[in-house]
Task: structure prediction
Amino acid sequence: MSSTLGTLFKVSTFGESHCRGVGAIVDGCPSQVELSESDIQPQLDRRRPGQSIITTPRQEKDEVTIMSGVENGLTLGTPIGLFVANRDHKPGDYKDMRSIPRPSHADYTYQMKYGVRAASGGGRSSARETIGRVAAGAIAEKILRLKYGVEIVAWVHSVGEISVSTDNDQEISRADVDMTDVRCSDRTVADRMMQAIIEARDAKDSVGGIVECVCRNVPSGWGEPVFDKLDAKLAQAMLSLPATKGFEVGSGFAGTTLRGSAHNDAFATKGKRIGTRTNNSGGIQGGISNGEPIVFRVAFKPPATIGLSQETVDFDGNHVTLEAKGRHDPCVVPRAVPIVETMAAMVLLDCALRQEAGAAFRPDSN
Result:
């Protein structure tokens, strides 16, 4: 089950970076939801390679095909098969690296685990695997939006040491985010981020960054106690993404510098509901949503495959100089934005379905 996420809304991805195609199987999608490829394609377009000068030059249209689970534009309640063909794959770019594990990549660990690996493009460890996640998550996004009014927006919070203020995170829209190629709504900061990425690219190097995400209008009560806490499930989903190295919700690590009196979110009446005056909890308390916006951040390391010469060893332990070939992003965070959004959607929809199932026989559910 290492390729499956979810309890009731289950998503299993398949495919390697240079095989015939990639995709996902979605099991547990409610029936009679209006669904077509046009509902899924926009997020895939935001994720696809070759969309700007700061992404990999690999050219893929990443057009999704719904293979099953939908008839006459409605979901059937049966497994939905999603497929995207690989067309611009060049496994020959990796022939000289078959015997050399790339530093900080998954080549070595996959070889040690399985005794064999997809030697071109990283196989399952490639970011290309996330296509299936994005396609499946786009379905979850539509259901969350239509049934619950949930809105999910992510953006690039930082590239290297350049970061943007997020005091206005409740006002940022996807249109704002997509105004710049780097997916930062502040044009001045975005220009500096772009320059940092271009400088790393031109030096045959790479740079990391942080994606921030807000999930608005999430009802209170989503998430399970103890092991299946909402923040724990979000952390699992985000840290399962390629190149991730950190996750924090709400005040995160910065909250450790505060005293409890400053960090506590006091309750207040907000219209017809009880809410909190501040949101250091990031919309989650005790592992359960409290009705406030869910805010979290995901840290992405610099991409491991770089063109600079690196002194390393091959699988036989012989010292070699590696100059990696292939087409790679100098920074992954601009393309990671829709991936973070759709992964959050999968987690939230799964929690919503679990909450509805658990509350079905409560006296106040009728």
